[in-house]
């Protein structure tokens, strides 16, 4: 059903066309005016923040999302043989993950039956999408098969209902859960404790963090937090990450203010990691970083600046910058079979597998 605001707009246009028809038209115009006045004062229809094309928040607090609300259940993918299942990590916050395990043949081919563990964070400007969305389900199925990993796709809380740092806290809780479960089998002498896929098949010494757009932002901030806890990360893959800087347009600044409920400025390292002092940035606990940039992405200059800052900080790792010409932000999530998207995924899989 059309929203009241859209309905009023349509009625107003219709009444304008009929304006010469005499009293009935004038009566209809008066009715439209009354509806318009109601829409302007009803907190359920009065807009508080318009974050098109993602969502609109109304003054009542109601949020209407335009994308990223579809759900596909966990399953065994018939094309790749990848199996998936969902686990609730924290019943209090609702934090959940979707785990992916490659085919049994791929698992058997791993070193001692163990595979790298990839913790993945979806994009969506911190306000839309989920780990259970068809786009991300298809992407993680394909990536799990291509890279031969145990993948953990994190369904973190979204703004504005849960402004930042909620997503960062969920990411930390998810990482702690993954590490604890991947290490459970080793701690208990192979008794199979913990999550069965992670404890039996996950190699905690080959732990990777990755994410696209907002998810890339989360992965980078999570890696920096892990540095303070001595948590080793084998690799960090930032796929067109949501990085900005102090000198951005008013629209981008207002969006960030909305996402974090005004808690952090545009010069905060959460959104501008280049603001980190070199002595802090160099402590990134990963020896390898992959940064992908889509040539037509307006975030590209900030993404490139991050690589320059990391290399210039004294960090001892290796950073690779992978640029796709002629494509926009996160193009690789759709049409996975296209040559550019396939090459992007092959690059990520090779990064995970050490080449």
Automatic annotation (TrEMBL):
Ranges for domain Alpha/beta hydrolase fold-3 come to 118-332
PROSITE patterns linked? LIPASE_GDXG_SER (PS01174)
Q: Which InterPro entries match?
A: AB_hydrolase_3, AB_hydrolase_fold, Carboxylest/Gibb_receptor, Lipase_GDXG_put_SER_AS
Q: Which UniProt keywords apply?
A: Signal
Q: Which domain of life is it from?
A: Eukaryota
Cross-referenced Gene3D superfamilies, in alphabetical order? alpha/beta hydrolase
Q: Where is the active site?
A: 213
Residues making up the signal peptide according to the UniProt record:
1-22
Q: Which gene encodes it?
A: LOC103643151
Q: Does the keyword ATP-binding apply?
A: no
Q: Which terms in the Gene Ontology molecular function aspect does this entry carry? A: hydrolase activity
* UniProt-recorded name of the protein: Putative carboxylesterase 2
Q: Does the keyword Magnesium apply?
A: no
The record lists the organism as Zea mays (Maize)
């Amino acid at each position: 059903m059309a929203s009241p605001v859209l309905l009023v707009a349509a009625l107003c246009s219709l009444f304008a066309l009929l304006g010469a028809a005499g009293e009935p038209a004038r009566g209809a115009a008066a009715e439209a005016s009354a509806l318009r006045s109601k829409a302007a004062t009803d907190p359920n229809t009065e807009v508080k923040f318009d974050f098109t094309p993602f969502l609109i928040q109304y003054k009542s607090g109601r949020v209407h999302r335009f994308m990223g609300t579809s759900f596909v259940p966990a399953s065994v993918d018939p094309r790749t043989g990848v199996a998936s299942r969902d686990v609730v990590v924290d019943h209090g916050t609702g934090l959940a993950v979707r785990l992916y395990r490659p085919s049994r043949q791929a698992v058997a081919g791993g070193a001692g039956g163990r595979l790298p563990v990839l913790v993945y964070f979806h994009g969506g400007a911190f306000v839309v999408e989920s780990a259970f969305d068809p786009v991300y389900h298809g992407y993680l199925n394909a990536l799990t098969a291509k890279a031969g990993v145990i993948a953990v796709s994190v369904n973190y809380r979204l703004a504005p209902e849960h402004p930042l740092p909620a997503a960062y806290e969920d990411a930390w809780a998810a990482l702690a859960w993954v590490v604890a479960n991947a290490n459970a089998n080793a701690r208990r002498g192979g008794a199979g404790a913990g999550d069965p896929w992670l404890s039996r098949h996950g190699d905690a010494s080959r732990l990777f963090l990755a994410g696209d757009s907002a998810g890339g932002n989360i992965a980078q901030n999570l890696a920096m937090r892990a540095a303070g806890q001595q948590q080793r990360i084998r690799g960090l893959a930032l796929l067109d990450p949501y990085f900005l800087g102090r000198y951005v347009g008013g629209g981008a600044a207002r969006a960030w203010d909305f996402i974090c409920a005004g808690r952090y400025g545009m010069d905060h390292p959460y959104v501008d990691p280049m603001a980190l002092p070199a002595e802090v940035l160099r402590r990134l606990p990963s020896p390898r970083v992959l940064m992908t940039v889509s040539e037509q992405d307006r975030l590209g200059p900030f993404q490139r600046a991050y690589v320059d800052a990391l290399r210039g900080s004294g960090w001892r790792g290796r950073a690779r910058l992978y640029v796709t010409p002629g494509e926009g932000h996160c193009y690789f999530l759709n049409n996975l079979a296209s040559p550019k998207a396939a090459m992007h995924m092959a690059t990520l899989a090779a990064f995970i597998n050490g080449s």
